[in-house]
């Protein structure tokens, strides 16, 4: 699905939500209005919509919904529905409430004590210099609902500026981009902030249900482009780092837009991926409106690297398991492997 068709879909879905939401009077009315729109969205745009027996699925769901006495409780049926149709990456949300298939994450013993300790702090974006020689960027989850160009720019520019400041003040032998805590969100500010490393290139792509190219995503002079459509931008500063040595670290919970960020570096020269295989949420979502202020992340495509290659999960070039050390980076096995790569 190309971007202009996605925009048209947004308009159609939003319009139907507006009119349908006016019909709700009782709890059962609200339930019917909500699920009518949810099914409409899925049948129009869900990636695997053509392989779903919608008549039977919708009939079963509507029968189950009769057992709910109020609208709030009926939202528990979303998970059941998504499981039936294999919509493992779709999510319905409003404020802090989220409804989706339960994420199958690795058991806690798969993670190092250092990783768990750092994860519990809810780490944010970090840029620093290690040992006076190596740039380090911790790119965490970045998630927001306002997808306007101005808001994406407001989020991305300060992140980019921090990297540009380190770039301008240091002569570094290589850069480490750490995605171990990047569980998803919005890829646009992530990739815009990393523009200096990616340069003006096609950086990832979207595939249709047959895994054939649908559209490419490109960075061009600091602008994020869907085909020829400008989505947002940063104001670049100084020389590019598109030929600098870069090590990208992935982890067991690197997912969704975290995986897109890793994909953007597949095919880039002077680049190595280090760490653990990612979680495997390599499908693309759009935002779709639902009644009563709800929205959904609706899966419409597969993600690919810049060469159109799809990966169920991203497997690093150099495997490192439970080698984390955030108290002393020079003892972190992922960073040790990064330094070996820089010194080659």
UniProtKB/TrEMBL annotation:
Gene3D superfamilies to which the protein is assigned, alphabetical: 2-enoyl-CoA Hydratase, Chain A, domain 1
Residues of the Tail specific protease domain: 107-321
Signal peptide start-end: 1-21
Keywords: Signal
One Pfam family it belongs to: Peptidase_S41
Superkingdom, natural source: Bacteria
Protein name: Tail specific protease domain-containing protein
Organism of derivation: Chryseobacterium ginsengisoli
């Amino acid at each position: 699905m190309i971007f202009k068709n996605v925009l048209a879909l947004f308009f159609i879905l939003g319009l139907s939500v507006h009119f349908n939401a006016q019909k709700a009077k009782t709890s059962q009315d609200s339930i019917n209005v909500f699920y009518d729109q949810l099914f409409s969205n899925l049948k129009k745009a869900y990636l695997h919509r053509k392989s779903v027996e919608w008549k039977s699925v919708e009939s079963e769901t509507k029968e189950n919904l009769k057992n709910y006495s109020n609208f709030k409780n009926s939202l528990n049926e979303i998970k059941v529905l998504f499981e039936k149709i294999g919509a493992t990456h779709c999510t319905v949300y409003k404020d802090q409430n989220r409804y989706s298939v339960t994420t199958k994450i690795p058991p806690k013993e798969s993670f190092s004590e250092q990783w768990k300790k750092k994860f519990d702090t809810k780490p944010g974006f970090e840029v620093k210099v290690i040992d006076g020689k190596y740039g380090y960027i911790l790119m965490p989850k970045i998630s927001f609902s306002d997808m306007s160009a101005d808001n994406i720019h407001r989020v991305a520019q300060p992140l980019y500026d921090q990297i540009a400041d380190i770039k301008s003040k240091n002569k570094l032998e290589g850069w480490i981009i750490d995605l171990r805590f990047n569980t998803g969100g919005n890829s646009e500010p992530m990739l815009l902030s990393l523009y200096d490393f990616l340069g003006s290139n096609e950086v990832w792509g979207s595939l249709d249900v047959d895994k054939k190219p649908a559209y490419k995503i490109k960075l061009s002079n600091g602008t994020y482009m869907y085909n020829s459509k400008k989505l947002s931008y940063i104001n670049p500063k100084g020389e590019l780092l598109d030929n600098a040595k870069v090590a990208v670290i992935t982890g067991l919970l690197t997912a969704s837009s975290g995986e897109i960020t890793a994909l953007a570096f597949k095919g880039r020269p002077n680049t190595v991926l280090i760490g653990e295989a990612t979680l495997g949420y390599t499908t693309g979502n759009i935002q779709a409106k639902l009644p009563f202020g709800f929205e959904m992340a609706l899966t419409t495509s597969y993600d690919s690297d810049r060469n159109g290659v799809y990966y169920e999960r991203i497997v690093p070039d150099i495997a490192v398991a439970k080698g984390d050390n955030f108290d002393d980076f020079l003892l972190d096995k992922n960073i040790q492997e990064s330094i070996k790569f820089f010194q080659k």
